[in-house]
């Protein structure tokens, strides 16, 4: 669930499109930017990576340096775990940012902060307050002990609640313990400034209550990251297999049941190489929010899969039917186990749409999927839109 940093290095052909802030940062550090061509034939300034640290990429996202990311490959199955790790990293980055924004918006409304503002009109703490990071770091560096104590005051009852919850498996308990700490670790300097400033004052209980309540909400929302990563992978594999089937029929014409050939590793590799040569790739992109200044859009995530597909209407109807499938509220594991033998086709994963939609509704994450076709190309485009 929370394994967005499993590998120290991810090996994926990643194009990163930068925001204005990201572009300014890279240029100020004399980093050369590339003019990158994307799946929709648009070009944008950014950087290209083949091997990258998940932590470094997440730092860029949290600093609002990234507006879009894209990978393109003829086959995804050999990079399955890495693609899923990248997807989870992106979702968690958005959750961390949303959590931080919500905490700040609630903290400045606390009674203790309002009282401070009334009695100190020359040093207001509100939505318009801007204190340079350098100054905040200097102040917080002298309050390391207070930060540790405040952290434990916030977390101890949360951790006890997790450990005593009989509905969680031991693995889930460990994940949630780690996750709550990560959310606090990624709070902004400004939020920690407010927390430490009012630590042990009369109004600190209200601050603690806000943090614990938000942690509970985001622990629940974090479950969606796993669903999204699997859904992304299933869509990519579905498109990959369609491409491989079509190319196999072209390369091995006249052979009965050419579909069986794709299970031969050597033949499959040869087909994949041919797809690479023809640039018949599956493109997967993540478009992040509306930037830090786009009110109401910071929690947006759009995941788009582009693929050449002659059967656009069939793809559209297939996805729509899976979205509305009546799965009788079976768990996903039960659903897979009870599938009749012989029906484990490559579109089985598309049933995940129904589970993903249900999981999103439970934690108040807005989700919609749209399938359309580009008017300027023969690309079938699948959009998954989330608002956290």
Blueprint (SSEs and pairs):
Layout: E1 10-18, H1 20-28, E2 34-37, E3 43-52, H2 54-62, E4 66-73, H3 80-107, H4 111-119, H5 133-141, H6 144-163, H7 170-185, H8 189-197, H9 204-251, H10 265-278, E5 282-288, E6 300-308, H11 312-323, H12 332-337, H13 352-362, E7 366-373, E8 379-387
Antiparallel strand pairs: 1-3, 1-4, 2-3, 4-5, 5-6, 6-8, 7-8
Please provide a written account of the structure:
This protein has 388 residues and is α+β, with helices and mostly antiparallel strands. Helices cover 52% and strands 16% of the residues. It has 13 helices and eight strands. It has an eight-stranded antiparallel β-sheet. Helix 6 (144-163) packs antiparallel against helix 7 and helix 9 crosses helix 10. It is elongated, with a radius of gyration of 24 Å. Residues 1-5, 325-337 and 339-346 have low confidence and may be disordered.
SSE order:
EHEEHEHHHHHHHHEEHHHEE
Mean pLDDT: 85
Q: Strand tally, please?
A: 8
The number of helical runs is 13
Q: Main β-sheet: number of strands, strand sense, barrel status?
A: 8 strands, antiparallel
The parts where pLDDT drops under 50 for at least 5 residues are 1-5, 325-337, 339-346
Instruction: Provide the helix percentage.
Output: 40-55%
Radius of gyration: 24 Å
Cα shape: elongated
Strand content: 15-25%
**Major β-sheet strand ordering:** 2-3-1-4-5-6-8-7
Structural class computed from helices and strand pairing: alpha+beta
Distance between the termini: 17 Å
């Amino acid at each position: 669930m929370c394994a967005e940093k499993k590998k120290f290095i991810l090996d994926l052909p990643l194009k990163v499109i930068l925001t204005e802030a990201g572009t300014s940062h890279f240029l100020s550090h004399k980093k050369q930017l590339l003019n990158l061509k994307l799946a929709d034939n648009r070009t944008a300034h950014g950087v290209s990576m083949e091997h990258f640290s998940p932590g470094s990429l997440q730092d860029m996202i949290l600093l609002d340096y990234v507006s879009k990311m894209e990978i393109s490959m003829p086959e995804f199955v050999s990079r399955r775990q890495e693609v899923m790790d990248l997807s989870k990293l992106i979702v968690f980055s958005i959750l961390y940012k949303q959590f931080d924004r919500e905490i700040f918006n609630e903290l400045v409304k606390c009674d203790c902060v309002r009282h401070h503002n009334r009695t100190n009109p020359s040093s207001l703490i509100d939505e318009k307050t801007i204190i340079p990071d350098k100054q905040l770091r200097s102040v917080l560096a002298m309050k390391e002990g207070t930060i540790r104590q405040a952290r434990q005051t916030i977390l101890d009852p949360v951790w006890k609640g997790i450990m005593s919850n009989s509905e969680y498996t031991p693995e889930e308990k460990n994940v949630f313990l780690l996750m709550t700490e990560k959310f606090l670790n990624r709070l902004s300097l400004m939020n920690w400034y407010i927390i430490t400033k009012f630590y042990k004052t009369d109004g600190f209980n209200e601050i603690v209550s806000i943090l614990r309540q938000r942690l509970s909400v985001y622990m629940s929302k974090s479950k969606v990251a796993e669903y999204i990563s699997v859904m992304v992978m299933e869509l990519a594999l579905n498109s990959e297999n369609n491409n491989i089937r079509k190319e196999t029929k072209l390369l091995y014409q006249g052979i009965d049941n050419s579909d069986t050939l794709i299970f031969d590793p050597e033949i499959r590799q040869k087909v994949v190489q041919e797809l690479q040569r023809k640039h018949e790739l599956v493109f997967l992109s993540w478009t992040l929010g509306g930037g830090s200044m786009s009110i109401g859009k910071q929690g947006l995530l759009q995941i788009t899969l582009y693929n050449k597909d002659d059967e656009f209407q069939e793809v559209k109807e297939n996805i729509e039917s899976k979205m509305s499938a009546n799965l009788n509220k079976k768990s996903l594991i039960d659903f897979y186990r009870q599938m009749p033998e012989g029906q484990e086709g490559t579109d089985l994963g598309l049933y995940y749409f129904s589970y993903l939609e249900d999981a999103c509704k439970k934690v108040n994450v807005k989700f919609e999927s749209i399938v359309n076709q580009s008017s300027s190309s023969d690309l079938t485009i699948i959009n998954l839109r989330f608002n956290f």
